[in-house]
Specification:
signal, four-stranded antiparallel beta sheet, B-propeller_Phytase, Neuraminidase, globular, Phytase, 6-blade_b-propeller_TolB-like, mainly beta, 351 residues
């Protein structure tokens, strides 16, 4: 195909996704090392899976958000689509977890919210085979359902991993906006057992982006238009809100959250400043002397347009990603893979 037609097609794809109000990309914006192949409709949220038996095998899982004809897509490290689950009814966010106890063995899973059916869907990794017999209903008995955000919390104990899904919705009552479910195997089908309701909401828009820090045991979520909330991920520790931060650091919406780990306890919380086409960087361990206070370290402009969702990994991945990568959704039906070294260079320069 003629290169001019390819460029024109990409431009039209961006325009169709954004309308005629494209957010500007800064001249100094970081450029992605890899841009994925296009999906048919509208990308929304990524997650990164590393094969525990072969760390050279890395797959990016991402959602294509559309009623009736959406899907869950798997990409290789060159951004090529290598597998997909279609159709899904408005899949929104996705997260992955390792070692779910299923059928007498450990299975890695990708779990996605399916807004059109008010369910979460569970698929094996890397095969993307359904394990849920059509889906797990969420927010049952509630007037407001419409699941959007999801993050998985893995709690290791002597009996094996307990894996929980923290699920947000389009709208709902403050104080119980999010529901948390333990994922369990019941006669060869993954089911969800609700263990708590929690989560304040003050932004007036919605809660979509959720991230869990397994090692430190915290859940973070973006209250669009307000701030980022922090709670314990372990339901046994209660529903006390530990922190709200980023109140004045965002142009408009607080969006995708990723956690980049430099050790078991240190690293960065990375949050999409959606309308500014940038990411705000915070210390994962909190400010010195106060683990529940977060002062922005840096704001990094990127080429991703109005990013909804992101994920990060610190493991070196070949020569392209020596310090790992950040994957960001971008308007135009694609995901961007960014070399984390570019982010780290900016952070180090500021420090």
């Amino acid at each position: 195909m003629n290169k001019q037609f390819i460029i024109l097609g990409l431009a039209l794809a961006v325009l169709s996704s954004c309308g005629d109000k494209l957010a500007p990309v800064a001249e100094n914006a970081l450029k992605p090392t890899v841009t994925t192949e296009l999906v048919p409709n509208d990308t929304d949220d990524p997650a990164i899976w590393v094969n525990p038996a072969d760390s050279t095998q890395v797959i990016v899982i991402g959602t294509d958000k559309h009623e009736k004809t959406g899907g869950l897509y798997a990409y290789d490290m060159d951004g090529k689509i290598i597998n997909k689950v279609v159709p899904l009814d408005r899949p929104n966010n996705v997260d992955i977890a390792y070692g779910l106890n299923f059928a007498g063995k450990k299975v890695d899973v990708a779990v996605v919210t399916e807004r059109g059916t008010n369910k979460i869907r569970v698929f094996s990794l890397p095969e993307l085979k359904p394990l849920d017999n059509g889906g797990i209903p969420v927010f049952e008995g509630e007037t407001e359902k419409s699941p959007m955000g999801i993050a998985l919390y893995t709690q290791a104990d002597s009996a094996g991993n307990k894996i929980y899904a923290v699920v947000g919705r389009k709208t709902g009552p403050t104080g119980r906006y999010l529901f948390q479910y333990e994922l369990q195997d019941k006669d060869g089908v993954v089911v969800g057992n609700k263990v708590r309701e929690f989560g304040s909401f003050l932004g007036g828009k919605e809660i979509e982006a959720i991230a869990v820090d397994n090692e430190l045991g915290y859940v973070y979520y973006s209250d669009e238009g307000h701030g980022i909330h922090k709670y314990y991920a372990d339901p046994a520790k209660g529903n006390e809100e530990l922190a709200v931060f980023g109140l004045k650091d965002f142009k408009e919406d607080h969006e995708g959250i990723a956690i980049y780990k430099t050790s078991d306890t240190t690293g960065y919380i990375v949050a999409s400043n959606q309308q500014n086409n940038s990411f705000n960087i915070y210390p994962r361990e909190g400010d010195k002397g106060n683990p529940n206070q977060y002062t922005r370290i840096a704001e990094v402009p990127v080429s991703a347009i109005e990013c909804d969702g992101a994920d990060a990994i610190s493991m070196p991945i070949g020569s392209k990603f020596p310090k790992g990568m950040l994957v960001a959704m971008s308007n135009g039906m694609v995901f961007h893979y960014y070399d984390w070294k570019m982010f780290q260079d900016i952070i180090d320069e500021i420090k």
